[in-house]
Design goal:
This is Thioredoxin domain-containing protein. It is a single chain. The protein is of the alpha/beta class. Helix content is 43%, strand content 24%. Helix 2 crosses helix 4. The protein is globular and about 40 Å long. The chain starts with a strand and ends with a helix.
């Protein structure tokens, strides 16, 4: 099964999807007007799925949760993390964030995906 891109609408969905999860998850802060953000979401999913396939899917599914920085319902999530740039990416394991990077940085993205897959394998 491939990763899913799941938009979060509010803090309750964030808590239920990421903080309570017993697995690895990726959170990306985006905005509709920010093309690099939209590109990163697509690129990250594609790369994550390709690397999982190379590993013969020996890892759990890692979903990508997206927060639109400007959506009214997402204000509490944005306030909690206060991303300094868009896109901004966090990696979570068992509800705790373990890595992050900002901007459309392919090297940092690949490093985060590698860490996500390693963490997912260990669970």
């Amino acid at each position: 099964m491939d990763s899913k891109i799941i938009p979060l609408q509010n803090i309750d969905e964030f808590k239920a999807s990421i903080l309570i999860e017993e697995r690895v998850a990726i959170l990306i802060f985006t905005a509709e007007w920010c093309q690099p953000s939209l590109n990163l979401v697509t690129l990250m999913k594609k790369e994550l799925d390709q690397q999982r396939k190379r590993l013969n899917q020996q890892t759990g599914v890692i979903n990508i949760f997206v927060v639109d920085h400007e959506k009214e319902g997402c204000y509490q999530i944005v306030k909690q993390f206060a991303p300094t740039t868009l896109p901004y990416v966090y990696l979570f394991e068992k509800g705790k964030y373990i890595a992050q990077f900002g901007g459309l940085d392919v090297f940092a993205m690949n490093k985060l995906i590698k860490k996500a897959l390693e963490s997912s394998r260990a669970l």
